[in-house]
Design a protein that fits this description.
The protein folds into two domains: 91 residues, MurE/MurF, N-terminal domain (Udp-n-acetylmuramoylalanyl-d-glutamate--2,6- Diaminopimelate Ligase, Chain: A, domain 1), CATH 3.40.1390; 210 residues, Hexapeptide repeat proteins (UDP N-Acetylglucosamine Acyltransferase, domain 1). Helices cover 18% and strands 29% of the residues. The chain has a twelve-stranded mixed beta sheet, covered by helices on one side. A ten-stranded parallel beta sheet has the order 9-12-15-18-21-26-29-32-35-38, with no helix packed on it. Strands 10-13-16-19-24-27-30-33-36 form a nine-stranded parallel beta sheet, with no helix packed on it. The termini are far apart.
């Protein structure tokens, strides 16, 4: 596919600065680049690449003040990062979708698979399971009995959706993702641990994307909820009975313990850990490796550290922490001086 700079500007409601007929047929990073490629500049720290890039078209902020000559044609937009996301979504939507059931797939007689859906080789669709219109079920995916997959979903190779779980529309599950495995429920006894049956399910709402090898456990009773628009990175664990609010995002290796309720629009950096039965309010942000050891019901906070505290307080504490060796030496020196003074007085 090829597009002119003017066509791109019209699509993004932007303004061309340079050759409106410049042709692009792909995407490249702004560093280096190639003729015929499109890139974007969203971070001013990378502005120097704008004056060196070989890309034909670059999306830039509408208010950017140039400090040198640019060979590329510019398309000025309100938000370059959002604009390139829209272009990539459009580009992806133009790829042909697979349709039909591969001969090596196994589909139960009572399952319902939409005519325009795709089921790849060695995929399994269980009894009374449902696969909605336009959904793509890739090789080695398992959709167990009574599970429901909505419309226009993509389940990449090796995904497992356990029995009775429900996926909304436009859900994307990456390879190795497991939805609805048993929650970690065991009752201690004199002779060991007895398994507590996990008889609930998982409900994932529309427009959710979950990364490779991430797990969302089914509830002991009731439902583990992943609300609309949530984005979960690779290797994330969401335990049983949790409720993750809409548009919340989690980076890799986040762990959420059981029965935790998380609000809307929260952001958790890599390896954040959240204790069980916590209530996290809306728009809580937490930096990487933070340990949230209790509830933050009021929301609208930024947390760092373990146990997690307000990020400003954490920054001050970190400054002190760096000075501890020097402070320790000074303290020992003061102790010796005090002992010396005591000796002289005696």
């Amino acid at each position: 596919m090829e597009f002119t700079a003017q066509q791109i500007a019209d699509f993004l409601q932007g303004k061309v600065e340079g050759d409106p007929n410049a042709i692009v047929n792909g995407f490249c990073r702004i560093e280096g680049g190639r003729p015929g490629a499109l890139s974007f500049l969203a971070n001013e720290r990378y502005e120097h690449y704008l004056y060196e890039t070989k890309n034909s078209v670059v999306l830039v902020n509408e208010g950017l003040q140039l400090t040198g000559e640019v060979s590329a044609t510019l398309v000025r937009v309100a938000n370059p990062y959002e604009a390139v996301a829209r272009l990539l979504q459009f580009y992806e939507s133009q790829k042909p979708r697979r349709v039909g059931v591969h001969p090596a797939a196994c589909i139960a007689k009572t399952a319902q698979v939409a005519e325009d859906a795709y089921v790849g080789p060695f995929a399994y669709i269980g009894e009374h399971a449902v696969v909605g219109k336009g959904s793509q079920i890739y090789a080695h995916v398992v959709v167990e009995e009574h599970a429901k997959v909505g419309e226009d979903c993509i389940l990449y190779p090796g995904v497992s959706v356990y029995h009775d779980c429900v996926l909304g529309n436009r859900v994307i599950l990456h390879s190795g993702c497991v939805i609805g495995a048993d929650g970690f429920g065991f009752a201690p006894g004199a002779e060991g641990y007895s398994k507590i049956p996990q008889i609930g399910n998982v409900v994932i709402e529309d427009d959710v994307e979950i990364g490779a090898n991430a797990c969302v456990d089914r509830s002991t009773m009731g439902t583990t909820h992943i609300r609309r628009g949530v984005k979960i990175d690779n290797l994330v664990q969401v335990a049983h009975n949790c409720d993750v609010g809409s548009h919340t995002v989690m980076s890799a290796q986040v762990g959420v313990a059981g029965s935790t309720k998380i609000g809307q629009w929260c952001m958790f950096g890599g390896q954040v850990g959240i204790t069980g039965h916590a209530v996290i309010g809306d728009r809580v942000q937490s930096g990487a490796q933070a340990g949230i050891a209790g509830s933050v019901p009021e929301g609208n906070k930024t947390l760092l550290g373990s146990p997690a505290i307000d990020y400003k307080q954490f920054a001050r504490a970190t400054t002190v922490f760096k000075k501890l060796p020097d402070m320790y030496r000074e303290l020992n020196a003061l102790r010796k001086e005090i002992e010396t003074l005591k000796g002289k007085q005696n």
